[in-house]
Amino acid sequence: TRFSAALAFLSDVSMGVLGGALKRKEKLSARLGDVLSSLYLCSATLARFERDGRQADDAPLAHWAIWGSMFRAQSAFEGVISNFPNRLIAAVV
Questions:
Q1: What is the pLDDT along the chain (93 residues), one digit of tens a residue?
Q2: C-beta atoms surrounding 77 within 10 Å
Protein backbone atom coordinates (compact mmCIF):
# COMPACT_ATOMS: atom_id res chain seq x y z
CA THR A 1 0.00 0.00 0.00
CA ARG A 2 2.82 2.38 0.85
CA PHE A 3 4.58 1.74 -2.47
CA SER A 4 1.30 2.20 -4.38
CA ALA A 5 0.72 5.53 -2.67
CA ALA A 6 4.33 6.57 -3.36
CA LEU A 7 3.96 5.64 -7.03
CA ALA A 8 0.75 7.66 -7.31
CA PHE A 9 2.39 10.66 -5.63
CA LEU A 10 5.56 10.47 -7.71
CA SER A 11 3.57 10.07 -10.93
CA ASP A 12 1.43 13.08 -10.08
CA VAL A 13 4.48 15.21 -9.25
CA SER A 14 6.21 14.10 -12.44
CA MET A 15 3.19 14.96 -14.57
CA GLY A 16 2.71 18.25 -12.76
CA VAL A 17 6.32 19.34 -13.22
CA LEU A 18 7.11 17.89 -16.64
CA GLY A 19 3.69 17.66 -18.29
CA GLY A 20 3.96 16.28 -21.82
CA ALA A 21 7.75 16.31 -21.61
CA LEU A 22 7.54 13.26 -19.35
CA LYS A 23 7.00 11.13 -22.43
CA ARG A 24 10.33 12.32 -23.83
CA LYS A 25 12.13 11.67 -20.54
CA GLU A 26 12.52 7.98 -21.21
CA LYS A 27 14.52 7.15 -18.08
CA LEU A 28 11.84 8.61 -15.84
CA SER A 29 8.89 7.02 -17.59
CA ALA A 30 10.68 3.66 -17.81
CA ARG A 31 11.50 3.70 -14.10
CA LEU A 32 7.90 4.56 -13.23
CA GLY A 33 6.87 1.60 -15.40
CA ASP A 34 9.37 -0.58 -13.54
CA VAL A 35 7.76 0.38 -10.23
CA LEU A 36 4.32 -0.40 -11.61
CA SER A 37 5.37 -3.81 -12.94
CA SER A 38 7.05 -4.73 -9.64
CA LEU A 39 3.91 -3.81 -7.73
CA TYR A 40 1.86 -5.87 -10.17
CA LEU A 41 4.09 -8.88 -9.54
CA CYS A 42 3.63 -8.44 -5.79
CA SER A 43 -0.14 -8.32 -6.09
CA ALA A 44 -0.20 -11.31 -8.45
CA THR A 45 1.93 -13.32 -6.02
CA LEU A 46 -0.35 -12.45 -3.12
CA ALA A 47 -3.46 -13.26 -5.15
CA ARG A 48 -2.09 -16.66 -6.12
CA PHE A 49 -1.04 -17.40 -2.54
CA GLU A 50 -4.53 -16.52 -1.28
CA ARG A 51 -6.30 -18.39 -4.07
CA ASP A 52 -4.31 -21.56 -3.34
CA GLY A 53 -5.41 -21.49 0.30
CA ARG A 54 -2.28 -20.07 1.94
CA GLN A 55 -0.30 -23.28 1.73
CA ALA A 56 2.48 -23.35 4.33
CA ASP A 57 4.90 -24.86 1.82
CA ASP A 58 4.37 -21.91 -0.54
CA ALA A 59 4.89 -19.22 2.10
CA PRO A 60 8.72 -19.02 1.81
CA LEU A 61 8.50 -18.77 -1.98
CA ALA A 62 5.82 -16.09 -1.81
CA HIS A 63 7.86 -14.20 0.77
CA TRP A 64 10.98 -14.38 -1.41
CA ALA A 65 9.10 -13.27 -4.55
CA ILE A 66 7.43 -10.33 -2.82
CA TRP A 67 10.61 -9.08 -1.16
CA GLY A 68 12.48 -9.35 -4.45
CA SER A 69 9.82 -7.36 -6.26
CA MET A 70 9.73 -4.76 -3.51
CA PHE A 71 13.50 -4.36 -3.72
CA ARG A 72 13.27 -3.83 -7.49
CA ALA A 73 10.48 -1.28 -6.95
CA GLN A 74 12.60 0.56 -4.40
CA SER A 75 15.55 0.62 -6.79
CA ALA A 76 13.29 1.98 -9.53
CA PHE A 77 12.04 4.72 -7.17
CA GLU A 78 15.64 5.70 -6.53
CA GLY A 79 16.22 5.76 -10.30
CA VAL A 80 13.29 8.13 -10.82
CA ILE A 81 14.45 10.50 -8.13
CA SER A 82 18.10 10.47 -9.20
CA ASN A 83 17.18 11.20 -12.84
CA PHE A 84 14.61 13.90 -12.07
CA PRO A 85 15.61 17.04 -13.99
CA ASN A 86 14.51 19.51 -11.31
CA ARG A 87 16.93 18.90 -8.40
CA LEU A 88 14.91 20.96 -5.93
CA ILE A 89 11.79 18.91 -6.45
CA ALA A 90 13.85 15.70 -6.45
CA ALA A 91 15.23 16.66 -3.04
CA VAL A 92 11.74 17.35 -1.70
CA VAL A 93 10.31 14.12 -3.11
A1: 999 999 999 999 999 998 888 878 888 889 999 999 999 999 999 999 999 999 999 999 999 999 999 999 999 999 999 988 888 888 888
A2: 20
